[in-house]
Amino acid sequence: MMANLPYVDVVNTFDTHEVRNVYQWTRKNGSTQFVSDANSVARYRPIASVKQTINVSDSDVLSLIDQKIAETSLPIVRIDSLKVNPRQDVNIWEKALGLEFGDRISVKIVNPDTSSYTDELWIESIQHNVNASTQTWAWNITLSPASSSGWVLGQAKLGVGTRFAYT
Description:
By secondary structure, this protein is α+β, with helices and mostly antiparallel strands. The protein is built from 3 helices and 8 strands.
């Protein structure tokens, strides 16, 4: 776990690729369950998820899509990468050298207006750039959300609500 490292650059994304704001799911031999988020549809256009499920009851399907629309009707801010200059502070060397791929970390981003955003993330890649002539050391990590939901067999699709990662 890491927090409050003195980063020099952070890359955030706020995209709508994973937004789903209209759900039309049907269980085999059941009625189609429909849920939409009118505010999200007005803001981002209708982006539907239409599928047949293997649930036992229509109420189970409705419960699932109620949960899904709460998670996917709005884009979320993602912290994609972080850059730190460990040479400036020997107290962070242990953290910079001790973390590995797949480690779960906590990152706190402080905005110019002093508000902050904290997220739990997985480390996907680590790059150290050391230059002896300029005496610089940059530590770059790429990240993915630790809160990503797991894949459900027969339901998840790569690139739709999921990201490929190796841990």
